[in-house]
Amino acid sequence: MRIFDPHIHMSSRTTDDYEAMAAAGVQALVEPAFWLGQPRTSVDSFVDYFDALVGWERFRASQFGIAHHCTIALNPKEANDPRCTPVLDLLPRYLAKDGVVAVGEVGFDSMTEDEEKAFSHQLELAKEFALPALVHTPHRDKLAGTRRTLDLVDAAGIEPGMVVVDHLNEVTVDVVDEAGAWMGFSIYPDTKMDPDRMVAILQRRGLDRVLVNSAADWGKSDPLRTRATGEAMLAAGFTEDDVDRVLWRNPVEFFGQSGRLLLDVPEAEQGATFAGNSLLRGER
Amino acid sequence: MNESLLAERCAEIAADHTRIRTRFPAAAREIGRTPGTSPEPGAERVEDDVRVRLLVALRDGLAGEADALSAEVHDLYRFGDADERRAVLLGLGELGDAIGDRAVDLLHDALRTNDPRLVAAAMGTYAARLDPAAWRQAVLKCLFVGVPLRLVADLDRRADDELRRMVADYAGERRAAGREVPADALALLSEHAHPHTSRET
C-alpha cells in the first residue's frame, strides 16, 4: 500500500512517527501551515515556522524516504489577531518557493469579519500564484461555515477543482461535492471521522475528488489512520487499485496541479546533515 | 537554463526591484537548476548562477541607492531557504562596490551556522570586508566543518602568523586526541615552516 498523506502536521510529531509511517507505506505528505496550539504573538514566529516547513522538516522527512511538501498561509484562528495579520504581506515570498503546493490552511474558525477578509485575500493569492487552496472548515457551525466557504470560492472565481474543503463529515460532504470541489476527510481516533464511516461515504458516492488524511498534529491523533482507512476499504470489498486511487493517485492529482510536487526523494541517507544538524544522537 | 527567460526576469527586476521578492525564490524552478542536490561545499550549481544574475540586475536597477539595495538583499536572505541564502552570499562579491560594508552582517550570520555550503559561500571575495579576527575564526571554522581552503578567497595573501598559530594549536589538539589533521591545515602550516623562496624574491 503506497500512501500520500495530504494533511499532517509533522513539526509536532517525533522521528518514531516518521519511522512508523514509512513502515506503513507513507511515501509522501503535505504539511499545511496552521496554528501551533500555543498562539503566536508576532510575525517573526510565522517566519521561523515557514522556514522550518520548507527546510528542516523537509530534511527530517527525507531521512525516512518521505517526500515532504507544505502549504503556506495565515490560518483562520490567528487571522483574528492584529499582531499576526501583517504576515499576509510576506506570504508571496513563500508562495513562490519550491515544494509549496497550495495556499492553506485558509478558511473559517469563528466566522468573523477578519477571518473572511484574510480568507478572500488568500484566495486571490492562490490565483496569482496558480496554486490550489486548502480550506479548513470550522469545528463549530460546520455546515454554515462550509456553505460560506463555497460562496467565497465562487466569488473569487477560482476553479472548484483547485480547492479542497477539508475536515468534512456526513453532514457537509454533499454541498462540497455538488460544488465540484475536492473533499478532504480527517480520520481521527475519536472525533471528526473514523475509518468505517469513511468507507460508508466512499461506498455511497464513489472515489472521485476524495482525499483521506490523518491531520495528525500536537493533539490526540494518529499518523497511521490513513493506513487503517485503506485496510477498512479492503475489508469492505474495495480493490487494491481503489485504495491506491484514494490514498495515492488522488492527492497526486490534486496537488500536482501546483506543478511543484517533489516525489523524487533520494534514498534516505542516515547521517546526512541539515545546516550541520543531523538526526543522529551520539552516533557520530 | 532558459537564457531568454533569465534575460526577461533581469530586465523586469532592473525596472522594478520589488519583483525580485518572488522571482528570486522561484528562479530554480522557472529558469534552471542542476538536478539533485550537491551536499559538498563549493559545487557549481546552475540555480546559483541564475540567482547571482538576478542580484546583478537588482544592483543595476538600484544604482546609486545603496541603502535600498542593502534592504532588499537583507530581506532576500532573511526570508530565503538554504539555497536562496547561499546564492545571496555568492552574489555579494558582485555587489561589493554598490553595497559597501552594509551586508557584512550576513557573512556573520552564515558563519554562525554549521552548514558547510553556507560557510563556503561566505568566504568569497566579499569576505575581504571581515575584520582580521573574524576572518581568522572563519578560516578555522572552514577546517572544522570541512570546507576546502581553496574556496577561501585571498587565503595566500591574508594568512598571517596569528592564523598559523591558531591552526597549529588546532592541529596539536587533533593529534593529542589521536585524530587526523586535515590536509588543508598541514599545507597552511608547512608553508609557514618552509616559506617558498619564490615568494620572497
TrEMBL record, chain A:
Domain of life assignment: Bacteria
A Gene Ontology molecular function term of the record: hydrolase activity
Record keywords: Hydrolase, Metal-binding
InterPro entries to which the protein is assigned, alphabetical: Metal_Hydrolase, TatD-like, UCP005295
A Pfam family that the UniProt record links to this protein: TatD_DNase
Family: Belongs to the metallo-dependent hydrolases superfamily.
Name of the featured protein: TatD family hydrolase
Organism annotation: Nocardioides luteus
Lineage of source species: Bacteria, Bacillati, Actinomycetota, Actinomycetes, Propionibacteriales
UniProtKB/TrEMBL annotation, chain B:
UniProt source species: Nocardioides luteus
Name of this protein: Sugar phosphate isomerase
InterPro entries: EboA_dom
Superkingdom in the source lineage: Bacteria
